[in-house]
Amino acid sequence: MVLSRTRVVVLVAMVAAALGIGLMGTVGSASPKDNDDGHNNGDKGRSTLTVVSKTPEIEVLDLDPQGPTHGDIRVTNAPLYNATGAKRIGRLDLFCVITDPADESAEKAHMAECTKTFTLPGGEISSQGVEVYPKLSAPAPGEDAITGGTGKYAGVRGEQRFEPRGTKVINIFHFID
Q1: Whose CA is closest to 70, among 107, 109, 111?
Q2: What's the whole-model pTM score?
Q3: How confident is the model over 109-143, as pLDDT tens digits?
Q4: Which CATH number do you get for residue 60?
Q5: Domain that holds residue 127
Q6: What's the CA gap between 90 and 66, in Å, rounded?
């Protein structure tokens, strides 16, 4: 079945809205309940969790016209590892929709709205935000808002910082207590 560009954009908008509404109810003021590998509770009122994603599978849905345009979608999944990158502990699933393609000479990067789910032992953490893509293969370093969690991450809030390094990305969650 071939979907028109308009239908795909409407579908993506509906999915994003549904995810946003569903996640609003899970946002609270808790931090993770257990201190697993990668957690650091040294800062009063803040705890951190570091995970590494490696070897992502990336698919880009390039809508007409060819090349980066409004509504193009980037879908990714990757295994997650502990902070040292030695032990596999989960998975990352994400999708990004281009909201502002670098289609003018002064624009150096594409802008995309991204939604991520990190599946970890004991629960999931979701984050969302606008990301900068100098190339569609990888984002520039940045940060997204933590929009919620499940299981031992239920009620988390804070930010998720990410730094691409080749085929891996260092993800640092800063939880606000």
Answers
A1: 111
A2: 0.75
A3: 999 999 999 999 999 999 999 999 887 767 899 99
A4: 2.40.480.10
A5: 5-176
A6: 35
